[in-house]
């Protein structure tokens, strides 16, 4: 089996990591609170919310207004 997929020996299906509860997503190294999880085939990505800046592939921080 490939990571990010499940199957029955005949067909493979994508696992939607974004649908997991927050504790399961944390175990996967999920997205920070400043980002949205986007499911992709076999994986997921984190997209920063408006007024947030990416600091790595999973984390975004809020931009301070001065």
Automatic annotation (TrEMBL):
The keyword Transmembrane does not apply. The keyword Manganese does not apply. InterPro entries: EGF, EGF-like_Ca-bd_dom, EGF-type_Asp/Asn_hydroxyl_site, EGF_Ca-bd_CS, NOTCH1_EGF-like. Residues 14-61 form the EGF-like domain. Keywords: Disulfide bond, EGF-like domain. PROSITE patterns: ASX_HYDROXYL, EGF_3, EGF_CA. GO terms for molecular function: calcium ion binding. SUPFAM superfamilies: EGF/Laminin. It comes from the Eukaryota. This is Calcium binding EGF domain protein.
């Amino acid at each position: 089996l490939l990571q990010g997929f499940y199957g029955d020996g005949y067909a493979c299906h994508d696992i939607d990591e974004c649908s997991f509860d927050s504790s399961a997503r944390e175990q996967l190294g999920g997205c920070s609170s400043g980002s949205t999880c986007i499911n992709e085939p076999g994986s997921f990505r984190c997209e920063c919310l408006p007024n947030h800046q990416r600091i790595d592939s999973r984390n975004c921080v809020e931009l301070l207004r001065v």
